[in-house]
Amino acid sequence: MDLLSSMRSFVRVYEARSFSAAAKDLNLGQPSVSKSVAQLEQKLGVQLFLRSTRGLAPTDAGQKFYEHALRTLDEADLAMKAVKDANAPLTGRLRVSGTITFMRQHIIPKLPDFIAQHPHLSLDLLLDDGNIGLVEEGAEVALRMGKLASSSLTARKIGQCRRIVVATPGYLKQYGVPIEPGDLVRHAAIVLSRGEGGEHIAFDKDGIETEVVLQPRLRISALEGIRAAVLAGLGVAVASEWILEDELDSGQVVEVLADWRMPDLDLWAVMSGGARHASPQARAFIAFVEEQLAATRYGVR
């Protein structure tokens, strides 16, 4: 008995509630479909359908087997598709959304490698610091930061980075270096007004937790604005490490309160169709981003 073929026959009979209709859908003879279901029942040792002159009705065992058989057939189809797609060149267009600063600094500069690997694939990059819904954007993949809103969409954590307190050496020379988190209330704060921003900041050091309420001089809705304001010496900011990586390395910006930690900022790949039904294009792009991050300190450890 070909188990997958028999399960396919059973699923169609279950959905059509008819051997003849299932046989027609499968382009098989009715005796063949009836035999497949009978062999399944014999192998399982249970009756899957109640047969009467009024038609077919699934038994409790039949209902339970249908749920598992459907998942098994889906997985088998996906396995076949994955192997076939692995050798096929990626074509078409993939729409990807992400935050402006992260994409500009860490993804777009790497795209020549991805495009060289998939020369027949086109990308639409939808850049916005707000977490606009995938459906509204028409995107298949979104790179999202921080905590995700509850939804039916599938997400996978692919990166993370530290949140740190930063300022320019010039600002700190003029206004002093914060030694404790509580010192921040006496400094001009630059605050992100959406997403993971806000004035309430939780710190931790050796198991000691404290919360500080910043005093914003500037509230800005985009990370590019936060970055520009810090570089202009307008105050201190709580920012993700990756938006100021180059400036931290060069000393143009410095980290303060380095012995205190805040919750890490997570990067998620969100798929509008779910992981099981993601297109080869979406899977390839997510794998590429994950590979790029794994080579840095921002990969998931």
UniProtKB/TrEMBL annotation:
Q: Domain of life of the organism in this record?
A: Bacteria
Question: What are the residue boundaries of the HTH lysR-type domain, all occurrences included?
Answer: 1-59
Q: Name one GO molecular function term.
A: DNA binding
Q: Which InterPro entries match?
A: LysR-type_TF_proteobact-type, LysR_HTH_N, LysR_subst-bd, WH-like_DNA-bd_sf, WH_DNA-bd_sf
UniProt xrefs under CDD domains: PBP2_CrgA_like
- Keywords of this entry: DNA-binding, Transcription, Transcription regulation
Quote the Pfam families the UniProt record gives: HTH_1, LysR_substrate
Give the UniProt family note: Belongs to the LysR transcriptional regulatory family.
Name of the protein in question = Transcriptional regulator
- Report the source organism: Massilia aurea
